[in-house]
Amino acid sequence: MKKYLVDDTAYYVNAKGAGPILLFAHGFPFDGRLYEEAIDRLASRFYCVVPDLRGFGQTPLGSNGHNSLGYPRVKMGRFADDLAILGAEIACERGCKGSKVFLCGLSMGGYILLEFARRRPQMLQGMIFCDSNATADPPEKAAGRVYLAETIDSFGVHTLADNMIPNLLSPHTNKEKTEVVSKLREMITSQSPQGIAAGARGMSVRRNLVDLLPTIDVPTLVLGGEDDKLSPPELLDGIAAAIPNAQRATVSKAGHLPPLENPEEFADAILNWHSSVSWPK
Ligand code: MLT
Fold first, then answer.
1. What is the pLDDT confidence band of residue 57, given thresholds at 50, 70 and 90?
2. How many domains, the chain?
3. Which residue in 23, 68, 171, 231 has the fewest CB atoms around it within 10 Å?
C-alpha cells in the first residue's frame, strides 16, 4: 500500500497498472479490498487507484472526520474532496499534472461520485456508477443510520456483518462462493466503529442529486449486479436513462457487490465500455 497525505489524514492506497488514472470509491462499510481482484484485470488499461476512504481500512478518520459537536461524521462532499486531492497528487506524481481522471464509485462510493461530479466536473474524464442511487435518505432511513452510529460501539461489528451480509450478496455467491462470503465478513468486521459511525452519519445527511443526472456531460457507465436488492436493476435503468450519454450494463451472478462477487465480468464491463467510447486525445 502507498500512503498519501490528504488534507489532515494519511490515505492508504493500492495502486497498479498503466494508462489513464481510474480512481475507485468503495461502499459502506468496506475498504479498498472490495476492488482487489477487479483491478488485476483493469490494470492493463488503467492506472487503478484504490484508496481506503477516510475512516475505513487503514486510513485514519482525521480531525476533519467529525461534526461540530465532535461526533464522527464524514460527509460525501468531504470524501469527494479527498479523492480530488488524491487524484491531483497522483496525476502530478505520474507526470500528467492537471489531467482528468476516471472515477468508479459503488453504493456509498456512488453517492461520493455524484458529489464529485457536482463539485469538480472539470476533473472528470468519465464515470462508472455502480449499485447506487441519486436520492437522499428518507427520514426513517436517515434516523436508522444515526441510530447505527450511536450504537455500533455496543452491538459491534460482528452483529453488523451478520445483519448485512445476506442482503448484500446474490443467492449464487451466498451458496457457492464461501471464500467471498468470508472475505466480506473479514472486511466488515475489521472496520473501526468510529469509521462506521462517521460514514453512517455522513450518508444520513447526503443531498438529493437526482437533478444533477441530466447535467452530467461525461461518458458514464451505469453498472450493477443482476441480483442487487439494495439498488435493483430497474432503479439503475432509470438512472442510466436520466444521464445523457450513459451506457448500462449488468453483472451476472452478483448482488450489491459485483467487483467482489464476479470481478471478471465487472472488469470486462468497464473495459468494453471504455473501448466503445471515442475519448478525446
Ligand atoms: C453501501 O454498500 O455502500 C451501502 O449499501 C450504502 C447505503 O447504506 O446506502
1. very high
2. 1
3. 68
